C-alpha cells in the first residue's frame, strides 16, 4: 500500500475537529486589524484544501500549493468548481511563481516542518519576493512549549469508527526536533489494513523567527496567541505571526 496516499485519504477524517471556518474568520480579522483588503492570496502547504475552500467561497483570487500530489488530489475534489482557485505542486523552500500577491498564508504549523534554519530562511525569502509592497504574511507555528512539553515524549491513542491509530513522539533537545511515529489501522470491507507514517517538526522560539524575518527585510512583525490578538504566554501552544513587507 502507498502509505502517503492512504494518509491523504484519511486526513480530513482525522482533522474533522479542526475548524477551518474559524481559521478563515481569524485571517479576515487580521486583514481588518491591519487595514488590508487583499485580492490575490497565495496559500502555502494547502494540504487537502480545507482553508482554501473557505477562502474561495469569500471570492478571493487564490493560488494554493502543496508538496504532496496525493493531498492536492483531495484538494482538487473540493475546489475544481471554483474559477478563482489555482492549485500547484510546489515546495515552500524553493517555489517560484513569477507573480506577486497581496497576502501569503500558511496554517496548521506547516512552518514547523521546515527542519533546517537555512531552508526556513529560503522559505521566508521566497515569501518576501512574492509579496507586493506592503503585503501581509500570515502563518502559525506549534510553540516550543507544545512540541517539547505537550507532544514530545508522549504517546497518544485514538479509536474512531473506521480508524485506529497510535501516535508516539520523541523530542530531541539537541536539535529541537520532535519526531512523530504514527501507526494506522484502517477498516476497509471489514478488514483492517495497517500503514505507518513518520513526521518531524522543529521547535522554533519567537526570537529565531523574528530575527530571520527582519534580516530578510520585513518592516513590521507581530505575533499573538493564536485566534486572538493577545500576547503569548509561557503556556501558549500555537503562535500566529504577522509580517508586513
TrEMBL record:
Keyword Methyltransferase: yes
Domain of life: Bacteria
Transmembrane segments: none
SUPFAM superfamilies assigned to the protein according to its UniProt record, in alphabetical order: S-adenosyl-L-methionine-dependent methyltransferases (SSF53335)
BP GO annotations: methylation
Pfam families, per database record: Methyltransf_25
UniProt cross-references to Gene3D superfamilies, sorted A to Z: S-adenosyl-L-methionine-dependent methyltransferases, Vaccinia Virus protein VP39
InterPro entries for this protein: Methyltransf_25 (IPR041698), SAM-dependent_MTases_sf (IPR029063)
Keywords in alphabetical order: Methyltransferase, Transferase
Protein name as it appears in the record: Class I SAM-dependent methyltransferase
Species this protein is from: Paratissierella segnis
